[in-house]
Every structure is written in C-alpha cells, then in structure tokens.
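Ticket #4471: structure export looks truncated?
Reporter: QA, pipeline team
Priority: medium

Steps to reproduce: submit the single chain below to the structure queue and open the exported record.
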Amino acid sequence: MAETTAVRQSITFSGPEIYYLSASLDAQMVFGVEDPFPGWLTEEIREAMDAARESLAVKGALTVDLAGEVVLDPDLAALVGVLADPDATLLLSEAGPNGDEDDAERTWFLGAGRAVELLPDGAGSYGLATLPEEADFAARILARWGVAAQPAPAGVPGSVPDDVLNAAREQVADGTVAQARTALEDGGLTAESAASLVQSFQVPLRSASVTALRRGQMEWEAGGIAMLEAGNGLWGLRAFEREGRGWVEITPCNAAALGAKVVGVIARFAATPTMTGSR
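Actual output as written to the record:
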C-alpha cells in the first residue's frame, strides 16, 4: 500500500503467519492483531502454526537449518521485532457519523530506531511497512482526520462523567434533545457548552482517536485524545478517572488547538525524534 507522504511497499501476511512470526520472537501479543485462533483446541492451533510455518517458508520469510531450528529472514526479523517488543505504540481508530468504524485503522510501532506500520485488510490479513525515519506522526494523524481549518464550537472546556455523556448522545439520537442538554448541564458543563455539544451530536461528521502506549517499569502506560467533528466545529475529548468513576474532559477546539493536543500526546510518550517528527 502506498501513501502520498511515504511511498513504500507493504509485505502482507495472514493472521496465523503474523502470530507465528511474533511468537518466534517471544511476543505475548501484538497490538492491532486479532487472535486468529479464538476458541480453538490446542491441537488445532498447533496444526495451524505448522501450516503458517510452511507458508512462510514458501514466501522466503524463514528457513529451517540442519539442526531443525527456524531462522527468520534477517530483515523481516528486524521488522517483526519492533512489533514483538516496541518501545511505544500508537493506535488510531476512526468512525463515521453513525459510529461505524473505518476499515482503515492504523497501528504504528516504534523501537530499535525503526517505525513500523500495521495495515489490517479487514479480512484477517495484515500488511507490514517501514515508515521513513523522518515520519511526522502528528501530521499524519491530523491529515487522516482531515483536520485543516475547522472552527471551534461555542462553549468553554468542561468535564462530565462518561456515562452521562454517552446517555446524552443516546438521548439526542432518540430525539429528546432538551433532556440531553439538561443532563450535560447537571453533569458539569455550562449551559452554552451543553447546548453546543448537543448541536454537535445532532450533526456529527466523524469521530476518531489516537491512543499512545509506552512500556513502563512494571506495566504499559497509556494516554490519548479523541476528536469529534460536527457541523459546528471540533471537540477534543480526553478520558480520565476521578474517585473511581470515568470522566471525559471536553474542549471546544479549532483545528490548530486540536493539532496541539495531538502533538502533546505523542510528545509525552515519545522517546525518540522519529515519534514526534522533530529533527
């Protein structure tokens, strides 16, 4: 697959082949790759793994030496190694006005001086492609989201419990707009912000999010930002927890402000210039 910002050919593998390759490098899981063997018996999985090894050998992705040891192609091993043990990962998702997920999700892995993109085809196969070292991930995200010159909706930043926000969205869909507006006000938004957000729920264009993950001392650290684009402008949304309850920080943003939030998320989890796009 090619992109205007970086023309490169991706290598495509089936789900079992990706699983075999990553397992060969001791990966417990790979973000963005669905389990190819849900509910399978151990013997069935073993047979599928043997078949994956054979198909990978046919592709030239691996060889078996005289001692019976599997040897991955060195270039491919370096590529898959980033998936198996990344320093950081960026997960992108997009949805249309009806909440339907885009079939062009993106997962970017960073590590060992490389940036690797995982490209699911929606049918159980995945492409792998190396991104250029100078890749500006913030710019790529904003371009994918179509963020250019959108205005900020009326209102001021505020926070509401996520269950209140979801309920208000459903109320708008059901036509009970006044109740949705009241619920958002009671949840913590100003009257102006509540009315503006309800208007956005009435004319949504798309929603999207980027989640950044970084390996910590004991576990993965995560953060992110979500976007809602509507007929009256852009909103930035950030989830957090308060006293054991999920909340969402909601900020009316113009394109520049949303771009700054995306840059901030990436910079916070970036350990290398490649991840931020700085030189």
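Status: closed, not a bug. The export was complete when the record was re-opened. Leaving a note from the reviewer for reference: The chain has a mean pLDDT of 87.
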